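Duplicate of #3305? Posting structure anyway:
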């Protein structure tokens, strides 16, 4: 090693071990060409040595972290291995829901209303037992589950107690399903249980589905295959039980097509016009509902009726909520060969026509030839049937009335009816009649009086090449019902009656005289419910407040001076066959000077009204004003029944 090399090594050592900061400017060497001597034979650069130290320090730091992670991973693996080994070999108190199996076995389909059995197998494959096990079976709406302690409808609950480990429990639950034919029914089964030392409740659920192969009820809807528009028709619904059990609270609902007008039914509907309560239906029992109505519609229009029977959610419901059986049937509306209609006092509907006994009825019959050919030998007749008809009042227009059988006829002989009716031709016939009085001197009544009208058109359809063809006929019917003749009689008395009256007779101006007002209710032919009598007292008449009988419901309103008597229900024949309903009350009359020489009114605007149970409409009448004349008081002496005096 020469001297230059030794100097270089010495300088490097000084720089490596020198702790004082080095000034680069002072250490900067002069630029000179690089020579072979400048290539170092060892690491002399300070930056290289610093990099080596940093790498060594980083390695020293990372080595403990990696070692810690490796140790933790080993501990976790050994712990998991130990726990798994313990669970597999040593057993545990942990229950897995996957080790509990609930198996359901039952028929694929059942008959509605018949009992069937659902087999339930519960397997506990856990190593510990299940505590406080409970079986809950939930049925679809309308089912009949077995009896249990459950207060929830359509639910069966049974306490199974403890289910041992690795054991199987077999339960068979017998029940009855109801529903429409081919409807799917789902039964939900739930197992609830607890484990030793825990208050938590665990569940295992399963469901079973089946079909109703036949409904518990069969419905037979009978109606014609076709019907002329506006013509009356009869239809019936027969409900038959297919069940071996009693069907509770069976109801029937009929959905009518548009254009159907309900007339009546036997038995009558419980609600509206289409809802019947059939009650409990015995096993294999049956019920039949008969209806009558008419159908409106266009020619060739199809109308569909639907009848449904089943149960309802509560007694207040007026619809079927659970259907046991149903039936659909359709008919075709046809345009009649000869169209006829009848209007009564301008009313051309087909509902029952309601009139009062003192009314006169005017009938108009319209007819039209709907055939593409003419009609020969046409004739129209109207048969009026009913006791209440006053035959002496029948007017047949240009027709003829046969009083022997109550028939009006229009034809070529009687009534100037056309001999030949061309296609599309139409015409009109008129008639009128009145009624016998419902209240008369005889001690009898015409109960629920009505008239039945039957209009018939007959003729021969013209046949090509043969003169006259087949007979055609069309018949329509209307019913006239008479409202009950509900009447109020009123009178004023002084000496007779339940009260002692005071004051002078004749009454004197500016001096008060009391009178007794007596009301009587007379009813003719129909029961009338909710009867009310109303009247007004003039400002110079005071309501005293005495009422006889004391139990009668009379209320006086001083605002307006209205007196209201709530009579209640009045039966047919009241006042004719049985005593009339009567009430008496006392009023005080204080005349003024301006009323001298007059018969002032005691009671004004007296009216009576109520609901006629036969016609279904309100009936009413108005009584003329009642004044101070005492024409019905037998105790009045001549001269006392005079106008007001000074």
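Output from current build:
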């Amino acid at each position: 090693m020469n001297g230059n090399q030794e100097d270089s090594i010495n300088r490097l050592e000084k720089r490596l071990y020198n702790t004082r900061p080095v000034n680069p400017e002072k250490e900067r060497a002069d630029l000179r060409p690089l020579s072979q001597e400048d290539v170092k034979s060892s690491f002399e650069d300070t930056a290289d040595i610093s990099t080596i130290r940093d790498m060594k320090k980083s390695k020293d730091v990372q080595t403990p972290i990696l070692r810690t992670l490796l140790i933790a991973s080993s501990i976790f693996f050994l712990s998991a291995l130990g726990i798994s080994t313990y669970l597999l070999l040593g057993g545990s108190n942990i229950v897995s829901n996957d080790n509990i199996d609930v198996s359901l076995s039952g028929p694929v389909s059942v008959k509605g209303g018949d009992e069937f059995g659902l087999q339930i197998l519960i397997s506990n494959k856990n190593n510990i037992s299940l505590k406080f096990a409970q079986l809950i079976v939930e049925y679809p709406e309308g089912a009949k589950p077995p009896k249990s302690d459950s207060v929830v409808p359509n639910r069966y609950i049974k306490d199974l107690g403890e289910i041992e480990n690795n054991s199987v429990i077999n339960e068979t639950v017998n029940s009855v399903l109801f529903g429409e034919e081919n409807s799917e029914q789902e039964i939900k089964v739930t197992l609830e249980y607890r484990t030793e030392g825990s208050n938590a409740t665990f569940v295992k659920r399963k469901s079973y589905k089946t079909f109703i192969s036949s409904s518990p009820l069969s419905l037979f809807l009978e109606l014609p295959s076709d019907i002329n528009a506006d013509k009356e028709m009869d239809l019936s619904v027969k409900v038959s039980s297919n069940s071996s059990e009693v069907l509770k609270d069976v109801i029937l609902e009929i959905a009518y097509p548009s254009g159907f007008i309900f007339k009546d039914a036997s038995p009558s509907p419980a609600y509206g016009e289409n809802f019947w309560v059939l009650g409990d239906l015995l096993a294999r029992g049956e019920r039949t509902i008969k209806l009558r109505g008419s159908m409106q519609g266009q020619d060739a229009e199809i109308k569909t009726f639907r009848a449904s029977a089943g149960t309802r959610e509560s007694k207040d419901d007026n619809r079927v909520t659970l259907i046991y059986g149903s039936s659909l049937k359709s008919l075709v509306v046809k345009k009649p060969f000869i169209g006829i209609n009848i209007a009564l006092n301008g009313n051309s509907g087909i509902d029952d026509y309601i009139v009062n006994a003192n009314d006169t009825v005017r009938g108009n019959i319209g007819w039209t030839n709907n055939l593409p050919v003419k009609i020969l030998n046409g004739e129209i007749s109207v048969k009026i049937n009913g006791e209440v008809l006053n035959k002496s009042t029948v007017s047949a227009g240009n027709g003829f009335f046969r009083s022997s059988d109550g028939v009006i006829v229009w034809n070529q002989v009687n009534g100037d009816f056309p001999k030949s009716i061309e296609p599309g031709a139409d015409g009109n016939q008129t008639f009128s009649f009145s009624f016998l009085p419902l209240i008369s001197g005889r001690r009898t009544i015409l109960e629920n009086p009505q008239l039945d009208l039957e209009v018939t058109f007959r003729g021969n359809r013209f046949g090509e090449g043969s003169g006259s063809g087949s007979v055609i006929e069309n018949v329509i019917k209307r019913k006239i019902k008479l409202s009950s003749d509900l009447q109020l009689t009123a009178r004023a008395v002084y000496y007779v009656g339940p009260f002692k009256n005071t004051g002078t007779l004749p009454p004197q101006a500016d001096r008060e005289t009391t009178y007794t007002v007596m009301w009587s209710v007379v009813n003719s032919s129909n029961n009338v419910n909710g009867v009310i009598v109303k009247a007004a007292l003039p400002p110079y008449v005071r309501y005293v407040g005495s009422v006889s009988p004391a139990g009668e419901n009379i209320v006086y309103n001083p605002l307006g001076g209205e007196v209201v008597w709530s009579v209640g229900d009045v039966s047919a024949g009241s006042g004719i066959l049985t005593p009339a309903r009567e009430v008496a009350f006392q009023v005080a009359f204080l005349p003024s000077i301006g009323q001298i020489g007059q018969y002032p009114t005691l009671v004004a605007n007296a009216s009576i009204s109520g609901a006629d149970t036969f016609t279904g409409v309100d009936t009413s009448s108005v009584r003329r004003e009642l004044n101070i004349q005492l024409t019905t008081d037998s105790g009045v002496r001549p001269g006392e029944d005079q106008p007001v005096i000074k």
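Confirmed duplicate; merging threads. DSSP finds three helices and 38 strands in the chain. Residues 46-90 form the longest helix (45 residues).
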